[in-house]
Specification:
Layout (H helix, E strand, L loop, with lengths): L1 H21 L4 E2 L4 E3 L5 E3 L7 E7 L4 H17 L4 E7 L5 H10 L5 E4 L4 H5 L8 E5 L4 E7 L4 H13 L2
Parallel strand pairs: 4-5, 5-6
Antiparallel strand pairs: 1-8, 2-3, 4-7, 7-8
């Protein structure tokens, strides 16, 4: 009986060790297809090789609307250096509101509408807006912000990721 207990304990410790190691690396960005306002689509796979900001937002979200000028400024600062932004409007956001917002504010980056909710589901069942992910050139999520990011910190992270291979 003691032998069984020690084996169980050893198996339990080995399992706990493997679970602890599972969280050590970056998670790959989920395979998603973003349907853009112009009707075209873009996949997460096509963004590999670029540092990408994926921002889940809604026109009815006051924090989202308030942070959008900073997201535009961030895009403008880094766009020529291998940086991309995809703003994903939530499923409940009326498409006409999203189009109007993007046009009146002249959003310079890709804007997608998550009509079915599948993109938000794939990215960890995003429910709260804004939720923003930073993805490195290898397609790995390196940071997740719920709420508005600290943009000074975000810019430092983007600069660091842009120089990585």
């Amino acid at each position: 009986m003691n032998t069984f207990s020690f084996r169980s304990l050893g198996l339990g410790l080995a399992l706990a060790g493997s679970l602890a190691l599972a969280g050590c690396g970056q998670d790959a960005a989920p395979q998603s297809t973003f349907v853009l306002l112009d009707g075209s689509s873009q996949t997460t796979q096509s963004l590999q090789g670029k540092v990408t900001l994926v921002n889940f937002w809604a026109t009815s979200c006051t924090t989202c609307v308030a942070e959008m000028p900073e997201i535009v400024a961030t895009y403008d600062k880094f766009k020529g250096k291998g940086y991309e932004t995809v703003a994903v409007a939530m499923q409940y956001d009326p498409p006409s509101y999203v189009v109007n917002f993007a046009e009146t504010r002249k959003l310079p980056f890709k804007v997608a509408i998550d009509n079915t909710g599948a993109v938000a589901q794939a990215w960890g069942d995003v429910k709260l807006t804004p939720t923003t992910f930073v993805v490195n050139k290898k397609g790995e999520i390196v940071k997740r912000y719920v709420g508005a990011p600290n943009f000074d910190e975000l810019h430092k992270l983007i600069e660091k990721l842009l120089v990585e291979a």
